[in-house]
Amino acid sequence: MAMIRGAIFDADGTLLDSMGAWDVAAVNYLADQGVQARPDLKQVLFPLTLTECTVYLHEAYGLPKPPAEIEAEIKERMRLFYRDKVEAKPGAKAFLEELKARGVKLTLATNTARSAITEGLARTGILPLLEGIYTTDEVGTDKHDPAFFHLVRRAMGTETADTWVFEDAVHAASTAFHAGFPVAGVADPYSDQAALKQVCRLYLPDLTDFDAFWARAGER
């Protein structure tokens, strides 16, 4: 039997098909302010939290609005996207249901604001399956810091070795991997798949084959 007692899931790009919307969020926001984004903007913003992104937009593009106001406006745009449009990635809900049926504790760890992410989780039917939601802005650190993953793990009462982290983003998967967590890298077109494969125990092309994951997760 697979030794897994807890699972920490990322939301965007892992459970929810939302990275496309985030990919263009800053570009669209700048366009609405009459400002053209530079070609490298997406790459610069990808590993940053939303707060860090808005500080960058304010400083690098000379936007007159303070970062807090920019952040609030982008958050509201994204909240509406999660409420009205976001879809779960293929197999995500059933995958969580299978884990929960086996007694695995499920939590969410995300960079996205609670007000927005809960809208998307409710829309897709995933919200009731989770025991908790942890956001980087509420915790006060981010996924470059292993303390974030350990805080979530301790809240579940599980050990590092039997707590799997499911991530699509390379920097987050790398943090968890080097902190000793077994990591499942979940494919998403907005992340570097070759790099992701280097920092995960298992690489999942999608979440549609739970039985294969469960069998392989027990391998040492």
Write structural notes for this entry:
This protein has 11 helices and 6 strands. The chain is α/β, with parallel strands linked by helices and 220 residues long. The protein folds into 2 domains: 6-18 and 87-217, 3-Layer(aba) Sandwich (Rossmann fold), CATH 3.40.50; 19-84. Strands 3-2-1-4-5-6 form a 6-stranded parallel sheet, sandwiched between helices. It starts with 5 loop residues before the first strand and ends with a helix. The mean pLDDT is 94.
- The CATH topology name of the largest domain reads Rossmann fold
Spatial gap, N to C terminus: 11 Å
CATH superfamily of the largest domain: HAD superfamily/HAD-like
Give the helix tally.
11
Number of domains: 2
Instruction: Summarize model confidence as the mean pLDDT.
Output: 94
Radius of gyration: 17 Å
Query: In percent terms, what proportion of residues is strand?
Result: 5-15%
Helix and strand string, N-terminal first?
EHHHHHEHEHHEHEHEH
Which keywords apply here?
48% helix; six-stranded parallel β-sheet; alpha/beta; 2 domains; Rossmann fold; 220 residues
